[in-house]
Amino acid sequence: KNIVILISGRGSNMETVVRAAQAEQWPARIAAVISNRPDALGLAFADEHGIPTAVVANKEYPTREAFDAALRDVIDGYRPDLVVLAGFMRILTPAFVAHYEGRLLNIHPSLLPHFPGLHTHEQALASGMKEHGATVHFVTAELDHGPMVDQASVPVLPGDTAATLAARVLVQEHELYPRAIRWFIEDRLTIEHGKVHVDHST
Ligand code: GRF
């Protein structure tokens, strides 16, 4: 199976997926890492690991529709079975999302349905939540919604700042995302009535 990973920045989640795929010998290959930003740090890691990289710079397109169409063409050139959003910071058009229905995953740094959108750690602190975390979900047209595959939670501790909380969540993301992607690759995930079922029978 072919996995295409989309990033916008540091790419630490992409890195853990690449490492897990290698270490656990997934029946899949990371076909490409694609960024909307030419300066995304994660591109260098992919390059060093022999993974093809591409940049589709959103700034060069006049509209969201034009950018998404170009991005889609580049992605589809790699014949993906799965497209993984890993810190990809662009809102995607409904047409793009529909094209990848059932094969587009995202990780979001909150316990959805709490705190969709940006600044999730600040929001968790401001609301007084005692628990926070991350969610892997299938992408649907509505931002940070869509059937949830798995979640991991962390405590919110006295004295936490957005940075300390983000770091605690990120540790969990790095376990959560490779595991969820592996389930997809192993055909364990089905969506029924908008909910994800994970088959653990084998
Ligand atoms: C992660 O916290 C991810 O959940 C969020 O943005 C961050 C990306 O980090 N959407 P990285 O680029 O994977 O290091």
UniProtKB/TrEMBL annotation:
Its EC number is 2.1.2.2. InterPro entries: Formyl_transf_N, Formyl_transf_N_sf, GART, GART_AS. It catalyses: N(1)-(5-phospho-beta-D-ribosyl)glycinamide + (6R)-10-formyltetrahydrofolate = N(2)-formyl-N(1)-(5-phospho-beta-D-ribosyl)glycinamide + (6S)-5,6,7,8-tetrahydrofolate + H(+). Coiled coil: none annotated. It is an enzyme of class 2 (transferase). N(1)-(5-phospho-beta-D-ribosyl)glycinamide binds at G11, S12, N13. GO terms for cellular component: cytosol. GO terms for biological process: 'de novo' IMP biosynthetic process. The active site is at H108 (proton donor). Keywords: Purine biosynthesis, Transferase. Residues 1-181 form the Formyl transferase N-terminal domain. Gene3D superfamilies: Formyl transferase, N-terminal domain (3.40.50.170). One of its GO terms (molecular function) is phosphoribosylglycinamide formyltransferase activity. The record marks D144 as: Raises pKa of active site His. (6R)-10-formyltetrahydrofolate binds at R64, M89, R90, I91, L92, N106. Pathway: Purine metabolism; IMP biosynthesis via de novo pathway; N(2)-formyl-N(1)-(5-phospho-D-ribosyl)glycinamide from N(1)-(5-phospho-D-ribosyl)glycinamide (10-formyl THF route): step 1/1. Catalyzes the transfer of a formyl group from 10-formyltetrahydrofolate to 5-phospho-ribosyl-glycinamide (GAR), producing 5-phospho-ribosyl-N-formylglycinamide (FGAR) and tetrahydrofolate. Belongs to the GART family. This is Phosphoribosylglycinamide formyltransferase.
